[in-house]
Amino acid sequence: MRVSIIMGSLSDKEVADKVVRKLIEFGVDYDVQVISAHRAINTLQDYVKEAEKTSQVFIGIAGKAAHLSGVIAGLTTRPVIGVPVKAAAFLGLDALLSTVEMPSGVPVATVAVGGGENAAILAVEILAVADEQLREKLVEMKHNMEEKIRNTSYTFEG
């Protein structure tokens, strides 16, 4: 099982690092590339075509115009998860809208602005449909989250 992660630019590295850390935690193989949908469209087309042979899920990470995930979705039949990235001008709202507003027939699952960890978890959930060990790791993760909440207490000190 493999996930292909594509950043629109190296400035998206911080979000990509969150994705990679979570995939490593689950033991999922990955590949990371920096390919702009606007500045290197032929390179992106070639990469997606080749990566389809080994990757079951794509994650696109981009800010501003954020067309990357939609372009990836137009090039593949594999699931695509978009991660919008916060830029200075509109705090990521521009990227969020560019990522989530796809035309009919070209779906992109979109997570929160900067939501690299959730993108990785969603990718693992997709892979877990066909992998019992991943499903068990997800169950354990959810159990650990619940336990952490149960063990959290609040005391008013006013």
Automatic annotation (TrEMBL):
What's the top EC group for this one? isomerase
Q: Which reaction does it catalyse?
A: 5-carboxyamino-1-(5-phospho-D-ribosyl)imidazole + H(+) = 5-amino-1-(5-phospho-D-ribosyl)imidazole-4-carboxylate
UniProt binding sites for substrate: 9, 12, 39
Q: What Enzyme Commission number(s) apply to this enzyme?
A: 5.4.99.18
Which domain of life does the UniProt lineage start with? Bacteria
- Domain (PurE): residue spans on this chain: 1-149
Q: In which pathway does it act?
A: Purine metabolism; IMP biosynthesis via de novo pathway; 5-amino-1-(5-phospho-D-ribosyl)imidazole-4-carboxylate from 5-amino-1-(5-phospho-D-ribosyl)imidazole (N5-CAIR route): step 2/2
Which GO molecular-function terms appear in the entry? 5-(carboxyamino)imidazole ribonucleotide mutase activity
**Xref: InterPro entries:** PurE_ClassI (IPR033747), PurE_dom (IPR000031), PurE_prokaryotes (IPR024694)
Q: What does this protein do?
A: Catalyzes the conversion of N5-carboxyaminoimidazole ribonucleotide (N5-CAIR) to 4-carboxy-5-aminoimidazole ribonucleotide (CAIR).
Q: Report the family membership.
A: Belongs to the AIR carboxylase family. Class I subfamily.
Output the NCBIfam families linked to this UniProt entry: purE (TIGR01162)
- Which PANTHER family does the entry mention? PHOSPHORIBOSYLAMINOIMIDAZOLE CARBOXYLASE, PHOSPHORIBOSYLAMINOIMIDAZOLE CARBOXYLASE CATALYTIC SUBUNIT
Task: From the Swiss-Prot or TrEMBL record, give the protein name.
Answer: N5-carboxyaminoimidazole ribonucleotide mutase
Q: Which gene encodes it?
A: purE
